[in-house]
Amino acid sequence: MTADVNRSWTQFWDTNHSVYVSPRHLDSHYRRIADDIIRVLPEGTPRVLDHGCGEALHAGRVAERCAGLILCEAAPTVRRRLAERFAGEPRIEVIAPDGVEALPESSLDLIVANSLVQYLSPDELKALLPSWRRALKPAGRLIIADIITPAQTAVADATALLRFAAKNGFLIDAFKGLVRTFFSDYRRLRTQLGLTRYAEADLVSLLSQCGLGATRLEPNFGYDSGRIAVVATKRP
Question: Which is deepest, 27, 148, 154, 207, by most CB within 10 Å?
């Protein structure tokens, strides 16, 4: 994939898409991600970056446990909604991706990139890693989650969604949503542009090239146990 591909995905997320099959799906998804971030927060009052945060509906719950929470989102419309939603929350800052390069060195205890790297080319990720590494404190951690492996299939994704829907009360909407998705721009883009996939060893190797030591993190963020997560720290 190229930078043009990333822009196409950014443009997609900036539209009124139907990836979330219902308001309950949207809320359940972001509630789960907030729970997952809270689960891995360092002790004390950390400073945290959520890169590729999406709608981040429950970021306020995360911010309650942080000295500062930075929400980074590429899609302008989504970013505007975030700024409006959290305008009264002094611990939350909303930035565009180019703002990551301006973050102070060694200023963050935790960086989370959930369901992001599949929409970046390997070269784009490799270009981003030095900015993440620079912003991390010496003992800080980078968590890359919801990574699609080469073995993961669309059928497995659909099955995971249906299980999550059954647990959270939107199963019928999920069935309808899968039908809509089959005819949607998301499926067209996924077919035409593809999603970047990483075997665990390949991603660990890429992180190592950028001065980050990484290991597998269990469990993955979100509801799809077929995808994986890794946690990385700065190497001297």
Answer: 207
Residue type, 56: A
CB proximity list for 163: less than 8 A, separation 6 or greater: 223
Cα(36)–Cα(114) distance, integer angstroms: 10
H helices present in the chain, as ranges = 3-13, 23-40, 59-63, 76-85, 122-135, 154-168, 171-182, 185-193, 200-209
Phi, psi of 204 (to 5 degrees): -60, -40
Kindly give the parts of the chain with pLDDT less than 70.
1-7, 181-193
pTM of the predicted structure, to 2 decimals: 0.90
CB atoms within 10 A of CB 134: 17
Q: String of b and e for 22-37 (b: at least 16 CB within 10 Å)?
A: beebbbbbbebbbebb
